[in-house]
Design brief:
mainly alpha, 183 residues, globular
Length: 183
């Protein structure tokens, strides 16, 4: 339960997949998350001469360990690649407004075998990115969803892509927006 060095912070998952997991995240990656960056800054303000980084622990509620692993993988990629700045509203298909590595990341980490109807992992990644305030990843995932929705020409095609048998009711949509306020 000890961290590899004092230059790591601890991230704990709580409950999304029924299990808790702990991750040791190097400060260089943690600084890419606005939430962790603020926590680190606060720790440095409280004891600037004594490095307490190793004592910092952040719990992420209601998420899967796979989603945290995916977000950390993305952060590692962004140490060697620059994420695209995605405009709103989306100006074209995702393949035209992002780099190929970004589309591949979403497909390989967020979808089961590239099948958009199996998008639960993508929503989990978006939730973790939103919690940790990794805006580039959240924006990428949201743009992927928007691009997929915009590529459908009929309601039936959209429902098939989403794996839905019928349109969602207002109550069902309210629950989705409550769970995923960034949508």
């Amino acid at each position: 339960d000890t961290l590899p060095s004092r230059e790591h912070v601890r991230i704990r998952t709580e409950g999304g997949d029924g299990e808790s997991s702990t991750f040791a995240v190097h400060v260089s990656l943690a600084r890419q998350c606005r939430l962790l960056d603020a926590v680190l800054d606060n720790a440095n303000l409280q004891s600037p001469s004594d490095s307490t980084v190793g004592d910092i622990s952040v719990a992420i509620p209601d998420c899967t360990s796979k989603a945290v692993e995916s977000v950390l993988s993305y952060l590692e990629l962004t140490t060697i690649r620059i994420p695209s700045i995605i405009s709103r509203p989306l100006k074209g298909p995702i393949e035209e407004v992002t780099q190929p590595w970004e589309v591949e990341f979403v497909r390989s980490h967020g979808l089961e075998n590239g099948d958009f109807s199996a998008h639960a992992k993508l929503l989990d990644i978006m939730k973790v990115a939103d919690f940790l305030v990794v805006d580039s990843l959240k924006d990428l995932c949201c743009a992927y969803v928007a691009s997929t929705v915009l590529s459908c020409s009929t309601q039936d095609e959209l429902m098939a892509k989403l794996g839905m048998a019928r349109p969602a009711t207002d109550n069902e949509l309210s629950e989705v927006y409550e769970m995923y306020p960034f949508l």
